[in-house]
Amino acid sequence: MQRKSFRNMSCPIARSLERVGEWWSILIMRDALFGLRRFDEFQKSLGIAPNMLARRLNALVAAGLLERRRYSAHPPRNEYRPTKRGRDFRPVLIALLAFGNRHFAPEGASVTIVDAETGVEAEPIIVDRVTGRPIREPEFAWVPGPAAGERTRQRYARRPHSALPEATASPGPPRPTPSPAGSRTRGRVGRVRPLPAGERRSRDAHDSTACQKQIGAYKEGSPK
Amino acid sequence: MQRKSFRNMSCPIARSLERVGEWWSILIMRDALFGLRRFDEFQKSLGIAPNMLARRLNALVAAGLLERRRYSAHPPRNEYRPTKRGRDFRPVLIALLAFGNRHFAPEGASVTIVDAETGVEAEPIIVDRVTGRPIREPEFAWVPGPAAGERTRQRYARRPHSALPEATASPGPPRPTPSPAGSRTRGRVGRVRPLPAGERRSRDAHDSTACQKQIGAYKEGSPK
Q: Which residue in A11, A111, A140 is closest to B142 by CB distance?
């Protein structure tokens, strides 16, 4: 069950998966956020082997997503509660739920999210908290952050042309806009500019401006 | 590498994990949505063993998230492109990215999502598409859907008391509200009503109204 570790990858997705990427862990978090607390509750819910469950619970405690609390001294018994970090995992579960309902529930949803008052079914989408705009291309782009290493920067600089949005990208000069002072701005990105077919620019690996000009918008969200 | 299948679970999260829950698969989808297309591109990006990569690509094609296209007859070479279903997986990646940046990037973000025009960093949250309201408790609840089996219904009916929102829940009569005709409403749920401590009501397994009255709001989202 040991696998290659993603821990030395700087990608935030890989790092999250390192901690909670294992199937069982995600379902354990689902159950913990649902309110299950005790070993036998998780075991009954998941039909998981005890040794596997113990291992995954320990890993989730070590990763800071669950907190272990002793609720009985004799016999010694622990319960497991989501931490703040564990509660922050909920959006991942909601995104998985929406994806599963859309694509793998031909007979209809077995679990769904509704307005607690009206019972109207919700349709989860991801937006920017500040502006409320849906996070999708080409309005938003994935870019190297301030802690990006050379590998990440090169990765984004070398982005394949085929990834550029075919329908929406229009050639034009990069338009880096000054960021509002005091905002959480950590980077700037020019407007999406497809490279001419066949062109792959060389660049000084340390020229981050040149790097950023070539950053393509990572396709995000999907047109609803 | 063979594990217990989640396919016979009706939970939409489990079903999604069944198809794309493997670590590598999620990173392959990340790369595919980034624009990588060819076997050697994925291999170089991930440092994954060829036999493992081939297996995961085949699984993602079988699950309908990637489409295989031959781009060379001699020698035979395929490329892999995200399908519509594959593009719908992006919100899961965005949720994982936000979670990783928040909790596992002590040195700062290595990859972040920004407004493509201004460079201002986005803060991804999940909202209901129609109303724009953040999906969190107690405003929204997870409930059995129309295709829920008996096991799912019982699961929600038996929800542990500890899961009820401690700070927000207030006792009161259930207030099922008629759903707008023609909406995508699939269920109704009464207002969250904590059961008195120690009480666990028995109920007729086929009395779905009684079932729904006892549904607690599954804590969602987290107060920002």
A: A111
Tell me how far the alpha carbon of residue B30 is from its chain's centroid.
16
Which chain B residues have a beta carbon less than 8 Å from that of A89? 99
CA dist A173 → A122, A147, A163 (Å):
40, 27, 19
Digits of tens for pLDDT over chain A (224 positions)? 345 666 677 888 888 888 877 889 999 999 999 999 999 999 999 999 999 999 999 999 999 999 999 999 999 999 999 999 999 999 999 999 999 999 999 899 999 999 999 999 999 999 999 999 999 988 999 999 999 988 888 888 877 643 433 333 333 333 333 334 334 433 334 333 333 333 332 322 222 222 222 222 233 333 33
Domain interval for residue A23: 12-86
Q: Which of residues 170-199 of B touch A (CB under 8 A)?
A: 175-177, 179-180, 183-189, 191-192
Contacts with B66 (C-beta within 8 Å, 6 or more apart), sequence order? B28, B29, B32, B57, B60, B80, B81, B82, B83, B86
Cβ B129 vs Cβ A125: under 8 Å: yes
- Give the C-alpha separation, B151 to A30, whole Å: 16
Flag whether B73 is in a domain. yes
ipTM comes to 0.72
Contacting residues of B for A149, CB less than 8 Å apart: 110
* A163 falls within a domain: no
Find the CATH number of the domain harbouring A35: 1.10.10.10
Beta-carbon separation of B12 and A109 below 8 A: yes
- Chain A residues with beta carbon closer than 8 angstroms to that of B37: 160, 162
Output the pTM of the full model.
0.72
Q: CB-based contact (8 Å) between B27 and chain A?
A: yes
Cβ pair A66, A81 in contact under 8 A:
yes
Contacts of A39 in chain B (CB under 8 A): none
CA distances A27 to A35, A36, B104, B119, B161, Å, are: 12, 11, 20, 36, 20
